[in-house]
Amino acid sequence: MGTVVLQAALLLGSERAIPTELCGEIDATCLGYAKLILGGQHEVVIGEILKSINLIGDCSIEEPQELYRRLNTQLAERFEKHPNLALLLAVALLQSFIQSNFTGPAPTQSAYQILSCSSLQKEQLHQLSVSLLSVLGQPAYDLCDDAIFLVMSLILLEQTSKQTSLFVDIPEELSTVEISAIETPAIVACAHWWRARALLTQLSLLPEPSGPHPIVASSILSSIDLVYAITKELPPHLKSELENQLGISYYLENVKCSLATNTEHLCLPSLIKVQKLTGFQFVLTGARAKRTKYQQEARSGLIILANSSPITVRDQEKDSSFNPESFALESDYLLERPIFQSIGDEPLDEQIVKRPKIDQGSGIDEEKLLPVALRQEDIPIDLRELDPNNQPALANHDNIQLLLRMQVIRQTTPAQNPMVEQELSAIVGRVLYQSGQKNWTLFSRGLWERSLIETTKAKTVERGLLQMQSLVEELGLKIKTRLLPQESEGTQVTNVERLKFVHQVPFVPRWALDAKLAEKYMSLGILKSAVEIYERLSMTCEAALCHAAAGDERTAEEMLIKRIQENPKDARAYSILGDIRQDPDLWVKSWDIGKYVNSKNALARYFYNPPASSGLKKDHSACLKHLNESLRLYPLSFDTWFFYGCVGLECGRIELAAEAFTRCVSLDATHSLAWSNLSAAFMELGKLKEAHSCLSKATSSDSPNNWRIWDNYMLVSIKLNLWPDVLLACRKLVEIRKGKVGEFSIDLPVVEKLVELLVTSEFPSEASARLTHFQSSCMEFICEILPGVVTTNSRCWKQVAKVELWRKRPWASLDCYEKEYRAMSHNPDLEFDEKVWNDSVDTCDDLVSAYESLGEMEGKHGLGSLVCKDWKYKARSTIKSLMSRGKNNWEDSDGWERLVELRNNL
Ligand SMILES: *[C@@H]1O[C@H](CO)[C@@H](O)[C@H](O)[C@H]1NC(C)=O
Ligand SMILES: *[C@@H]1O[C@H](CO)[C@@H](O)[C@H](O)[C@H]1NC(C)=O
Ligand SMILES: *[C@@H]1O[C@H](CO)[C@@H](O)[C@H](O)[C@H]1NC(C)=O
Ligand SMILES: *[C@@H]1O[C@H](CO)[C@@H](O)[C@H](O)[C@H]1NC(C)=O
Ligand SMILES: CC(=O)N[C@H]1CO[C@H](CO)[C@@H](O)[C@@H]1O
């Protein structure tokens, strides 16, 4: 039991989780090591535990696999019977690696010193370790420090969690990790959890997520059973509190993992769960704000009102066993903050409503990434009472939730949408501007995120770049820190502080900050600065892509060729060279040496759309074959599945397409086009019901105004006789398209069918009888919406007239015939175009019959009134005026004859 408490405490990074009364039960050595790790002294632990084993010795190791085998056997021999110790070592190694490359400060001893390697061995071991960490032809970042620690940690975790190694060849069938709350022992579950953390660390060393690693990590973090597997072995009196703490951590890490593996569309349920667990309340609303320095007038803006639950805050306070780093907010350009004027002085609607997506309903929908309060009265009472300029400090876990939500929004919305940028700013603002001391990890991440947002706006792009530059320096610890926490209490305190939460917020290794800055320069067209950074980071592929983007393909090619000469195993470099030269041989080579997935995708695109110079024709089956192989190795790529499905549809491989789009919507259930294409596949397979349900998903997803989707929805609904859905779609099509194509947005045959259905039902004669939903909606559509859209289409007016009559409003019905006739007879072509003449005669005929049949009915003023008292006179004068307009040209046409006949019949 004690052991599990100890491991839980390590997972939580909290010494407090080990109650003193339990310490007696725990093996003293392990307890000592755990305390050292929690106190940031990983090196001591590593040194102590490894003291007695000869890991490397004097061996000269040449091949990565040789290094793996050596480490694997040595570690297994020593730790097979001591999973607890193995886990402690693995944790120390991982945390130490993270400290070196992610959070700093630099440890006093390097990995190779601790392992007592010669300097000759050191260089070689580093290269071999980097090779081992590379995945599917993507080299791990080779300037990282202490790579061997991460390798050792991963090996130990594979051993303690009893899983097949990912260091040996990629397995044919991907084995996902199965965790059972009941059967998996707690210690194994802890090992799984740390392994997921280590795998995400490894992924952050790669240019793109790839290989089985994301799948293994997500499968570990895919179910809360991971937590239950641990807590079932805890002593009863600690169980509920630790379960709660571990649960919070689990959900946060689940989101982090989705973000890191580009499956961010799956995050919302976990975000909602963790919000409930911490009792966090927050809402986005409008406010007027003034930037201290640059603005005189307050402008409307957005603000997040947020508050942590008092219980969470109290728990956290109990935890401050060490001094948080403290620092003052001084710099103008880093810390300038808006001053909010009181919220609610303004009608909030105007500021937020611009964004079409937000529904107009009252109250707030908590099940959203960003709950919004449009009106002041929708803001929960606790939040309404907050002072917007002095909001209370949030619990750390709540700050993390905000940062994660921000990241999810950023990854799921199109870039450069000003409204989204405003929302992101509001979230970051809430993290940055709060009373009390700031947390290093979270605060520095907040500053970084804000500078990223600022660079997306023309007005603030320069300030954003300056902020990024100075943060790169400060976080890189190249110069002494000023804005961020000083290393006041010595490195121990600092590193512990900084390692807190590192597994809950997305990883940003040191060099990734620099690389992001370079990416920014590149997107702003400042290529020279971008290239400089990439070269300094020795990211050759990125630097080459920069040159290529600037049109200097020669330099790009030269750099890549040089890189390949130096690193013949860099499959990504081959593939990028292939992209620049459009040379399939290079992609094939890239696949052969490293199974680099993008090279297969490039081959697929090539065979789908071969350049004219190649003399090849579009080759669907080659294209599908390449995509199939790419997906086999990396099935988490939405884009690849989508392409696979489209090609499948195009060449009649419908089952394949259905499978592909099913995978798409399981990766992103909000993607309308994927739903719509999936329905197309089902249609082809004759599965109408499935097709219908896909389309109904498509219509409620991310592009609710895509008329083609509604059109398909209507067609399928017709086939299934689902008339209420047909009506819905038909209405929606008019709504979406009337602005562009006017009355052509109306699908007449469908309208006619709907009207036929409507009028064959009984119109409720007594006032008390209620209309069905279909009846009232159809009536509204035909009698209120259509007349605003129809201009000349007489068939359509007839339908309106029909429904008005059904509603027992003959006067309104007659009105329609008059409008129909007027629209037609005002056509100036009447005198030249026989068709118009013919049509006008027809509508005149309609109108005259309407006068005859409706004129004498009871009028709108009830008993005694008539629809049209002088209908005969009106009918006559209608005929007369049409005849006078047709006199010159149509006097001996058939139409003329018909008019004469009509007049005589009256
Ligand atoms: C920062 O994090 C540490 C570690 O959990 C905590 O003790 C401290 O209270 C936090 N600071 C604030 C202001 O929340
Ligand atoms: C790829 O092809 C293999 C063999 O034809 C097939 O079994 C597999 O289902 C295909 N994979 C996908 C994702 O379609
Ligand atoms: C599938 O989606 C693509 C991309 O949106 C589109 O071009 C194509 O027409 C769709 N195919 C079908 C059958 O709907
Ligand atoms: C108009 O109607 C007459 C018969 O009613 C027909 O012969 C003639 O072709 C029609 N003209 C046009 C242009 O449709
Ligand atoms: C490439 C890179 O940024 N590496 C850094 C890893 O962290 C150490 C210190 O912890 C730095 O010295 C390296 O520059």
Question: What topology does this entry show?
Answer:
Blueprint: H1 2-12, H2 20-23, H3 28-38, H4 42-50, H5 64-79, H6 83-103, H7 111-114, H8 119-133, H9 147-160, H10 186-203, H11 213-220, H12 225-231, H13 236-260, H14 268-278, E1 281-291, E2 299-307, H15 310-318, H16 332-335, E3 338-340, H17 349-353, H18 381-384, H19 396-412, H20 418-432, H21 440-454, H22 461-475, H23 490-499, H24 510-523, H25 527-536, H26 540-549, H27 553-566, H28 571-581, H29 584-594, H30 597-608, H31 620-633, H32 638-650, H33 654-667, H34 672-684, H35 688-699, H36 707-719, H37 723-741, H38 748-760, H39 773-789, H40 794-806, H41 810-825, H42 834-854, H43 871-890, H44 894-905
Antiparallel strand pairs: 1-2, 1-3
Helix pairs in contact: 1-3, 1-10, 3-6, 4-6, 5-8, 5-9, 6-9, 6-10, 8-9, 9-10, 10-11, 10-12, 12-13, 13-14, 13-19, 14-19, 19-20, 20-21, 21-22, 22-24, 24-25, 25-26, 26-27, 26-28, 27-28, 28-29, 29-30, 30-31, 31-32, 32-33, 32-34, 33-34, 34-35, 35-36, 36-37, 37-39, 38-39, 38-40, 39-40, 40-41, ...
The structure holds 2-acetamido-2-deoxy-beta-D-glucopyranose (NAG) (5 copies).
One 2-acetamido-2-deoxy-beta-D-glucopyranose binds at residues 834-835, 838, 894.
Keywords: Repeat, TPR repeat
Organism: Lachancea nothofagi CBS 11611
Pfam families: TPR_8 (PF13181)
